[in-house]
């Protein structure tokens, strides 16, 4: 297993959307289908898509354009909103040879778990040909969407960053104009913690917190797979100090996922968070803007570092509608497909040539350019038994934050988890 795949993106700008590598932009808890035919009974140039986007307000606009420009009738099934349930359901569909779903949207966690199982159709000869592949973030494609056999198994639907978002009014109230380094970051957190409000908010639920742990590990120059590394230890100690020493973030957020964290951020309880995407939730709440909530560049601790992610379209190898599915995937990987995602889902294009177009504009493009030119960009550190590893690390972290174990205990047990799941 590679250790912290590091990539410097050249020629491309890399990013959930308001989707996180860990969260969807809205989908139904109960699975439903839409379309003129039942899922699994699609005819020629007709597919069934397993999607996380079905409750997005612009899903029908996206669907209409996708059908018109791809020439494919798209029935759809809504994926569960809960991340564990969703991954279990997708695993069951693929492992059982279920052919009622042709195309699925999967995140990095699922890609890591499934790409070597033989359940996904290789796409390098049909969809991800050189002219398309050369426009995609090379390191991400290699690390997340390439199997051990060298097969390309997914079409990224966007490119995303786990960026630092701040409330500009709180930044100004702290008498600051920027957060450039670790000292600035701590100063900001302390200055904005008062009257029941906190400088930092997190999603520290056990299956979500690894994103933040790994972010701080990278910022401190550590290695998520090496817990004897001093930078790794510093990162977790820093998070402990935020909660227990400086008290600039609440311990009780160990129950929170992105939905709860974002609502508290929107409500003014937090001054800053790490979050995926382009700010869709903040826009919908009328809290987005340079004078409100917006993304800034990562502060430099030992270095500047940021994670990239995507949700990707994959082809079920059991599909009976592969020709139509490939037709859809070619559309999804095209300029039209990526611009449709940008327009309707705020999904920043994965293709460098599409991201460079004038149709893709705004302050997000500006900050992405700055991030791309000043940060190390990493794929997230995942092991084949993805969710088991993520959950165990999250539980260990929660125990440490609550003083149930020491820092040494955490590092020892974390290393044991790395060795067990790698």
UniProtKB/TrEMBL annotation:
Pfam families noted in UniProt: SBP_bac_1
Lineage top rank: taxon: Bacteria
Name of the protein described by the UniProt record: Extracellular solute-binding protein
Alphabetically ordered keywords of this record: Signal
Record-linked PROSITE patterns: PROKAR_LIPOPROTEIN (PS51257)
Signal peptide: 1-20
SUPFAM superfamilies found in the cross-reference section: Periplasmic binding protein-like II
Species, as recorded: Paenibacillus sonchi
